[in-house]
Amino acid sequence: MPDRVPAADLPPGAVRPAGQWAVANTGDRLAAVSRRCRHQLADLADGHIDAEGCLVCPWHQARYDLSTGEMVSGPRGFLGWHGPTPGYSGLVKRFGQVFRLRVRRAVRRGPDVVVEP
User: Fold this and answer.
1) For residue 42, which of 35, 59, 68, 101 is within the disulfide window of CB 3.0 to 4.6 Å?
2) What is the pLDDT along the chain (117 residues), one digit of tens a residue?
3) Residue 67, H or E segment
């Protein structure tokens, strides 16, 4: 059975878990990416979609492009620290550009949003 989430639980701007995927509704489209942030492995299914349609990590606000899985801006913090980390953030961003999230297509099928293999 494919990974799925009830469509009613995925309004625009929401992100929900579906197996190993974080499924997002940007308002314009549905997308699925692997669930672990490239920074400190936070669960991206607990994140949110920002005004630019990027998936934002719940821990340190690293941002990901849902089309490519690439980190478009690095984290704003480390461990328990939440604040500017310019050099470190740039290093993590570069890592997230090279080692992107896995990306899958998510589609509405009846009452569910399904992650296609």
Assistant:
1) 59
2) 569 999 999 999 999 999 999 999 999 999 999 999 988 889 999 999 999 999 999 988 889 999 999 998 877 756 565 666 666 666 667 766 777 899 999 999 999 999 998
3) none
How far, in Å, CA of 83 to CA of 21, rounded?
28
pTM: 0.84
Q: Beta partners for 25?
A: 30
3-state secondary structure at position 32? strand
Which amino acid is residue 23, in one-letter code?
Answer: V
Residues 6+ apart with CB under 8 A from 90: 74
For 47, counting Cβ atoms within 10 Å of its Cβ (0-12 exposed, 13-18 middle, 19+ buried), the class is buried
The span from the CA of 5 to the CA of 108, in Å, is 10
